[in-house]
Amino acid sequence: MTELDIHLDESDLTAALRHDVAAGLAADPKWLPPKWFYDARGSELFEEITRLPEYYPTRAERAILAERAGEIARITDAKTLVELGSGSSEKTRLLLDALLAHGTLGAFVPLDVSVAALREAVDRLTGDYPGLAVHGIVGDLTRHLGTIPRGGGRVVAFLGGTIGNLLPAERAAFLGALRAVLDEGEWLLLGADLVKDPAVLVPAYDDAAGVTAEFNRNVLRVVNRELGADFDVAAFAHVALWNPDEEWIEMRLRAERAMSVTVGELNLAVSFESGEELRTEVSAKFRPAGLAGELAAAGFEPRHWWTDPQSRFGVALARA
Ligand code: AVJ
């Protein structure tokens, strides 16, 4: 039996999408937030991205967790592992195995916006870990942190570098809100991609096989389907660039010709100039000292910091 708490249903999601699309297409420059990439197809494309030769973050983070999971278990004595933005929960198995072997873990609580991804992950984990209570929460990580069950001994994992999708002010608000729902002595395990040579960063977001381009364009398919829009998806080119001042990767979609797009359900018509770019994602990269400072500013005590051998990716363990 699957235990799923649904704090976001289809109609909440559609309302949030309508709001984001109305605001984002009226803005200058136009933008759409990255959370709308992840319908079933988008989630599959992301899984495919994680296997691309150019996309190092998933492999680098997995190497860190494989090496450090036992240590994380000994340091935290976790009774409950919470995972934010859990998606397929694949890397989480490394943590679950170590925490179960350590003998303290009783429950796993994944929280994700995607009902489909969560249901599949919960079903699979329930089958594979019969002694573990698996309690999925369908929710938005910036709005539903308060729904995570209390009871002490929690480790909240936020992996993959997804923290980088939040803008600096959103990040500060998110870390503060997370700290506020944790009790003193509970833990945050945070994965963050690190600043490095743009010759490594840019191809990770602009792969030779074009999978990231399809992932990027997928947001237009989502808007077409969910809000009755008529984006000519093929008329938008994938753009990935490194912003050295902000130290983040930006993904954009560039209109290859002038066009007018209607969004039926919003009674909205928007025009694009030829070459106009719609922003779809910021993926911030971090410096160790900067990240430690942000954690401290939110009321966490950064205790441990691990990187892969090439220092491409970092995992912080911070105490509330
Ligand atoms: C899942 C948000 C961490 O920013 O690297 C992958 C998403 N975007 N390729 C990232 C993504 C383009 C990914 N995160």
Describe this entry's structure for a reader.
Belongs to the methyltransferase superfamily. EgtD family. Keywords: Methyltransferase, S-adenosyl-L-methionine, Transferase. The structure is a single chain. By secondary structure, the protein is an alpha/beta fold. Strands 1, 2, 3, 4, 5, 6, 7, 13 and 14 form a 9-stranded mixed sheet that branches. Helix 2 runs antiparallel to helix 8 and helix 3 packs parallel to helix 4. The protein is globular and about 60 Å long. The protein binds N,N,N-trimethyl-histidine. The site of N,N,N-trimethyl-histidine has 11 residues, from strand 12.
What's the topology here?
Layout: E1 4-6, H1 10-26, H2 40-49, H3 57-76, E2 80-84, H4 92-102, E3 107-112, H5 115-128, E4 133-134, E5 136-138, E6 154-158, H6 168-181, E7 187-193, H7 198-204, H8 211-227, E8 236-243, E9 248-255, E10 259-263, E11 268-272, E12 277-284, H9 288-297, E13 301-307, E14 313-319
Parallel strand pairs: 1-5, 2-3, 2-6, 3-4, 3-5, 6-7
Antiparallel strand pairs: 7-14, 8-9, 9-12, 10-11, 13-14
N,N,N-trimethyl-histidine is lined by residues 49, 57, 160-162, 164-165, 205, 212, 281, 283.
Based on Cα principal axes, name the global outline.
globular
Strand content: 15-25%
Instruction: Note poorly predicted spans.
Output: none
Number of strands: 14
Report the biggest beta sheet as strand number plus sense, adding barrel if it closes: 9 strands, mixed
Secondary-structure element pattern, one letter each: EHHHEHEHEEEHEHHEEEEEHEE
